[in-house]
Specification:
The protein is built from 26 helices and 24 strands. With about 700 residues, it is an alpha/beta fold. α16 runs antiparallel to α22. The chain is globular.
Length: about 700
């Protein structure tokens, strides 16, 4: 560890009293000193593990530390730290230094108030807790805000021997609930300067309002306010408010049952609320639906003119929301938010399970009381909710890194082979994919391959590739219980560090959301109004039926898939930014725009397009094809050829065995896979009376 004194101003000399005055909390000298300490911790980590900084990496980490320690000029900052660039190490180094400040409760610590850390997994929360406790022995400086889950139960969170998983946890009905630390983890959240909790809780409850977790006190009279929030990876900023018949009915039921009618003090406000709900919300909503029905609309944009024509009276709904909040408290939050956003911006009308109005919008960060939020995101520039968000600042990251060692292979084909989730529901498609994977894996001896697919087919494909298990990386469990007999799947690969031995990544599919999700994201993260404008223009066309056709939706789909692919690639050995090992990425029939975004993310990477499927895949595809539920003629012939021993036989006999007429035989012979198969078959003439036999050099 470097001597802290070297960071002092030489004019101070040895006078510690003057030095203390000049080094007040958040002064440039204080921040420089603390930054130096954090960078020392980072240097030691890199040195002891034999890792070297790449060009610009240390400078980026240093700039990030200074921003976090007090130099940030805006409330919300996203730091574009790629996976493997030292993000977790940076947080650990920062926490270690700040722990020392809170142990002695320095002026800086008092000014900072405290730190809130949001992580993706319970295991990461425990690591930060242990780090703080190691550097503050016999001090109570940290709380982990958690709920029962498989990880913490497996790691001694539950004292009952008969409870091993979250599914077995009885929760508040447990006889030992009063003593369960997991169920009461929040009880002491306001007693320590450091608070750690998971993304799921932050996304669900606290993005827009952290006030319940800001203040803490150690039992003394002084109350401190935590002013630093660090979020590992981007939170879910999209919120979709909905208004439908079922939503209104649910609100009515909540009002009717929340307070007892036999208490006259509650009955009168209850009846007033029910009446206002009916006349100011239900009736106008039904009138709006009749307007769209009369126009024959299945998709429409509900504007302020539409709401006015349907007699939505916001002057009555605003006081209704105030009264409802006084009556039902937090139970009324959803309907109040829906009314609020409907009164301020347009909505999308669609017919699905029911007629509904939806208002996708981007949630606002809590910036009250000098709270500074830092989001550490490796995919910031593929996330419009961050890089287009006027609330969020993204500093430039001048890290010079070459990705020439990465080659992106794109499998194209003009056949009907697709690995979309819909296509994969077909058994033939999965058979063709299995053949394709075997074709690629057979040439990868000595390599470690990460094949990612959909959850529903991960186990099936793992079993089908049993002869290649020596080179495949299986699914890694989040609870550290060891690998599973399954391929990794999209959405279930949180343990990224356990996949970093892979030098080849194969996407057996593409991680996609439902179409509605992309549409909602396009409107929610529309900060300049262009997406809503395009939607409104499209609605003028009576034939408009599919939101997938909107350019803004396609853009969001391509960005989202590209972002997931970039994150997937960084689970490989590419995560080692100073490494030299070649890495390959294989994609099957991806959209061109998705490939473009991925290539832009890896700048000087290599790119390779393969236009033809291997013959084995064409054969499998043709063999499994059906028409009106029956095998095609080509399918029948290929199946016969697969079972044929190669001995001479008359074509007429083959036609007879397959029940084919000469015209059907000619049709089957036109198939590309059949043509390829007949390259290895000899004939002694033409016509149905000629013989065929397997060529001697055929494999």
């Amino acid at each position: 560890m470097k001597d802290v004194k070297k960071f002092t101003d030489s004019s101070f000399g040895g006078n510690e009293e003057f030095r203390a005055l000049e080094w007040c909390a958040h002064s440039p000298h204080c921040i420089a000193d603390l930054t130096g300490q954090v960078m020392d911790e980072l240097d030691e980590y890199f040195s002891t593990r034999g890792v070297t900084y790449i060009s610009g990496q240390r400078e980026l980490l240093g700039d990030t530390v200074r921003l976090m320690l007090g130099e940030a000029e805006v409330p919300v900052t996203t730091i574009p730290l790629l996976p493997g660039m030292g993000k977790s190490t940076l947080v650990r180094a920062l926490v270690k230094v700040l722990t020392r400040e809170f142990v002695r409760m320095s002026d800086y610590a008092k000014s900072l108030g405290g730190v809130i850390l949001v992580v993706e997994k319970t295991a990461e929360a425990y690591e930060l807790r242990d780090l703080i406790q190691e550097n503050a022995p016999n001090r109570d400086l940290v709380r982990v805000l958690e709920s029962p889950n498989d990880f913490n139960i497996a790691h001694g969170g539950c004292q009952r021997s008969d409870v091993q998983t979250r599914a077995e946890c009885p929760g508040k009905d447990c006889p030992q609930a009063a003593e369960c630390r997991l169920l009461h983890a929040a009880d002491k959240a306001n007693q320590t300067p450091f608070l750690v909790f998971m993304h799921a809780r932050y996304d669900q409850y606290y993005i827009e309002n952290l006030s319940a977790l800001r203040e803490w006190s150690s039992g003394e009279e002084t109350i401190y306010t935590r002013k630093l929030l660090i979020v590992d990876e981007a939170p879910n900023l999209m919120k979709v408010s909905k208004l439908s018949t079922s939503v209104i009915a649910a609100c009515e039921g909540m009002i009717s049952t929340y307070k007892p009618s036999y208490e006259l003090s509650w009955d009168k406000p209850k009846q007033t609320l029910l009446s206002t709900l009916n006349y100011s919300l239900r009736i106008p909503f039904q009138k709006l639906l009749r307007q769209y029905k009369a126009n024959g609309s299945r998709i429409a944009m509900a504007t302020s003119d539409d709401f006015n024509a349907a007699a939505f009276d916001w002057s009555k709904l605003d006081p209704f929301c105030d009264q409802l909040e006084r009556y039902a408290g937090p139970r009324s939050d959803e309907i109040i938010e829906t009314v609020s956003v409907l009164s301020k911006q347009p909505a999308a009308y669609q017919i699905g399970q029911e007629h509904e109005l939806t208002v996708p919008h981007c949630r606002l960060f809590d910036i009250r009381d000098d709270l500074h939020t830092f989001i550490l995101s490796g995919s910031a520039f593929l996330s419009p909710e961050l890089y287009e968000n006027p609330e969020v600042d993204i500093p430039s990251a001048n890290v010079q890194e070459s990705y020439q060692r990465l080659t992106i292979h794109v499998q194209r084909s003009d056949t009907r082979f697709s690995v979309s989730k819909t296509a994969m529901a077909n058994k033939t498609t999965r058979n063709v994919l299995t053949v394709w994977l075997k074709n690629k894996l057979s040439g990868m001896a000595g390599h470690k391959v990460l094949v990612a697919t959909y959850k529903g087919y991960a186990k099936e494909l793992w079993d089908a590739l049993s002869e290649f298990h020596d080179r495949l990386i299986p699914l890694q469990a989040d609870d550290n219980s060891g690998p599973k007999e399954s391929l990794p799947y999209f959405g279930g690969m949180n343990g990224s560090n356990r996949y970093n031995e892979a030098d080849c990544v194969i996407c057996a599919g593409l991680g996609r959301f439902d179409s509605e999700e992309y549409f909602n994201r396009a409107l929610a993260f529309d900060f300049d109004g262009s997406a809503w404008g395009e939607f409104e223009q499209a609605c003028l066309d009576p034939s408009f039926r599919n939101t997938d056709d909107l350019a803004c939706v396609q853009k969001m789909r391509n960005l989202t898939m590209a972002r997931d692919l970039v994150q997937l690639v960084f689970r490989s050995t590419l995560r080692n930014h100073s490494g030299k090992e070649p890495v390959s990425l294989w994609l099957i029939q991806p959209p061109e725009e998705v490939v473009m975004h991925v290539r832009e993310s890896f700048r000087d990477c290599q790119h390779d397009e393969i236009s033809e499927l291997p013959f084995e895949c064409l054969s499998e595809l043709a063999a499994g094809r059906t028409f009106q539920g029956k095998p095609t003629h080509a399918s029948k012939l290929l199946k016969w050829l697969e079972d044929w021993d190669g001995s001479p036989i008359l074509i007429a006999e083959v036609q007879g065995q397959l029940g084919m007429k000469p015209g059907q035989w000619k049709e089957a012979r036109k198939n590309a896979a059949v043509k390829e198969a007949f390259k290895h078959i000899e004939t002694d003439g033409s016509g149905k009376n000629c013989k065929i036999k397997r060529s001697e050099n055929a494999t």
